[in-house]
Amino acid sequence: MPTLQLESVSLAFGDRDILSSASIHLSETSRTALAGANGSGKSTLMKIISGMIKPDSGSIHVSRGARITYLPQSDYILPDTSVYAAADEAFSFYHDIQAAVRSLENNISQQAADHSASGDSVSLEPLLHEHHHLNEQLLNSGYFQREARIYHVLQGLGFSAADVKRSCREFSGGWQMRIALAKVLLEQADFLLLDEPTNYLDVEARIWLKNYISRYKGGILVVSHDRDFLDDTVNSVEEIFQGALTRYAGNYSSFEKQREQRNEQLIKLYEQQQNEIQRIEQFIERFRYKESKARQVQSRVSMLEKIERIELPENLKKIRFSFPPGKHSGNQIFIAESLSKSYGAEPVLSNLNFSIAKGDRIAVSGKNGAGKSTLLRILAGADKTFDGELREGSGVSIGYFAQDSDKSLTGDLTVYEELEKEAPTGLIPKLRSYLGSFLFRGDDIFKSVSILSGGEKSRLALLKLLLKPYNVLVLDEPTNHLDLSAKDVLLEALKSFTGTLIFVSHDSYFIRNLANRIFYMSESGMEIFEGEYEYFAWVLEKRNQYIETGSQANEQPMQSKDIKRSDKSKSGIGPASGLDKNSIAYKNQNAVRNRIKSLRKQAEVSMEEIENIEKRIEAVNMQMADPENYQNGDMMKKLSSERTDLERELEKAFCIWEETHQELEELEHES
Fold it and tell me: Tens digit of pLDDT for each residue in 208-264?
């Protein structure tokens, strides 16, 4: 079994320790998330494992012959070739083996011919054995089926058959990172290191990647800011804090619960230490200028210097965001009728009909290029060149965050000054805390806006928007460039927002916790899902299965419908005539899942009862084996009767367990 082990690895950049005695062990069955605050060293650790960076100290052990592949967050350099050719480079390891096989074949053929001509006898067995070994490697790798695999992976990540023939350079940076991801997945390395693989992926591609990783044969180490993705793909979490790694068993949600318990103890120790520091500092301040206390003061100064300060992780520094109150709006925010938009001859939005009411929280979802950003620009009033009609309600005040909002930030003001100049007076005392929650910490707030990166400007633009008193927020990918703690702050803030929210996001956790309606955009139009996110996710999962298998046994993809709010049915989509077959299937499957859960609990209870009865029977048998008891006829008669009753109870308990278990197996098999 291939293994990968880091022991006591340390690395410093200048006077800053990034990693300090960090250790981690991965096997081919590892499904591990790497967690930690921004700048804690997650990407650095991955680069050390991949061999891109050498640590200052410590050791790295990898099983002989084990291969490691690494997907960075960005700046992956692709060749100037077609998408297919770039993906085919994933098989370069096997191309080399194929070349070695051909070389061996020529060698075997030449030696056989030479010795046949000379009449000498020679054993070709070593060469034939090596030829067989290499051929077995190729056959087991799926090398000869690589074309089908390449198309399968590229299609899963959103590329069409026509895209596969195009040059990599024709695609945007986000799509180029999808090509890089495809190549990394196709390499079939023993260890797969993925740094933010869900960046640039739409919801369908994320579902496909989740399913692909669940079947991957090899160890996986992943950094992601998508909670649901991590919950579905990992079974352990390694957290970097103060340069060291701490392992937690379970998925990401389990990690957060375990970390919370650990942090409760850490907070107690922190508070105790802060009280002690305060007591010492008060003594020093009180007697600093008294000669009679000079020795005691100096002693306490030394004591203070020797205290190893406890630091709290960033996730413990909770920030509560308060929106300034917006003005009152009417109950109807937008009504769209036959809304359409084209760029030249290319239609982007076609004949959309919908309404948005006050208080709606709408997630706009769908594949990249389906028109999500275009729709938001129209709703925000940033694009007025469309066909059809869009009526805006009374008193509507719109705050709009675009993906290119960073371009609006220029000038030489500092980060703090840029925020302060437009913030309501009542929020100014909280600006430092707000900036910290959006990843501007320490001296970052004194940076000039002109030198900020695109991601930093985007975070600042979003924060500026949230400080203004709007009653409608239109947000296009607001979680880009945010880590999990910053996402939590934004999520809690938007939960408390009392106005109307329309947002684009591919983060399922974010959508699940915010949206009460989902506008799903696709090439064929727009579908409107009312209510729970789980139904929407279930439909997309079914479609993904249909695409993966092509099986008619799976649910057929739903037909796109443009519907008005007044037409919604209880199922959440489609006309009011009743539930469509997908909704019925979802509800039936949900009922089956609930029944399976109930049966599992019943089976556990039955097994506990069986074990309890068996223990009681064993206790009776021990009493019957006691010489004092088996010489007592009345006692033996009583114990024998008790054992008979217990054996009947045991038989009955076994029958209940068998019936429960049989139904459970049948339902699990069917589902």
Answer: 999 899 889 899 999 998 888 999 999 999 999 888 899 999 999 999 888 888 878
Beta strands per DSSP E along 537-635? none
pLDDT at 81 over 50: yes
> Distance between CA 478 and CA 459 in Å, rounded?
8
pLDDT of residue 71: 92
Residues in CB range of 504: below 8 A, 6 or more apart: 363, 364, 365, 372, 373, 376, 475, 476, 477
Percent of the chain's residues with pLDDT above 70: 87
Cα(285)–Cα(184) distance, rounded to whole angstroms?
60
DSSP one-letter string for 500-556: EEEEE---HHHHHHH-SEEEEEETTEEEEEES-HHHHHHHHHHHHHHHHH--TTSPP
Gyration radius from the chain CA atoms: 32
Q: What is the DSSP letter of 22?
A: E
Stretch 150-169: mean pLDDT? 90
3-state secondary structure of 395: coil
Instruction: Write out the DSSP string of 93-162.
Output: HHHHHHHHHHHHHHHHHHHHHHHHHH------HHHHHHHHHHHHHHHHHTGGGHHHHHHHHHHHTT--TT
Burial 349-377 (b: 16+ CB within 10 A, else e): bbebbbbbbbebbbbbbbbbebbbbbbbb
Joined together, the tokens standing for residue 574 give: 């489609």
Question: In one letter, which amino acid is 382?
Answer: A
Nearest residue to 484 via CA among 455, 509, 467: 509
Q: Output the pLDDT for position 320.
A: 66
Which value, to the nearest 10 degrees, does the dihedral of the CA atoms of residues 403, 448, 488, 193 take? 80
Convert the pLDDT of each residue in 319-361 to its tens digit.
667 677 788 888 999 999 999 998 888 888 988 999 999 999 9
Write down the pTM of the prediction. Answer: 0.66
Q: Report CA-CA distances (Å) from 483 to 153, 304, 314, 315.
A: 28, 35, 11, 11
Q: Tell whether the model's pLDDT for residue 373 goes beyond 80.
A: yes
Contact (CB, 8 A) for 21 and 469: no
pLDDT of res. 108: 76
Round to whole Å and give the CA distance between 438 and 475. Answer: 16
Query: Which has the closest alpha carbon to 356: 340, 329, 332?
Result: 332
DSSP secondary-structure letter at 558? Answer: P
342: three-class secondary structure by DSSP: strand
Question: DSSP string of 246-287?
Answer: EEEES-HHHHHHHHHHHHHHHHHHHHHHHHHHHHHHHHHHHH
Whether the Cβ atoms of residue 236 and residue 30 lie closer than 8 Å to each other:
yes
CA distance 540 to 428: 44
pLDDT band at 588 (very low <50, low <70, confident <90, very high): low
Q: Please state, as a whole number, how many other Cβ atoms lie within 10 Å of the Cβ of residue 26.
A: 25
Which residue bears the tokens 């707000």?
434
For range 9-30, the mean pLDDT: 88
Least confident segment among 81-95, 106-120, 567-581, 657-671: 567-581
Evaluate the CA torsion angle 409, 413, 416, 420 in order and state its sign: negative
Is 305 strand, coil or helix?
A: helix
pLDDT at 375: 94
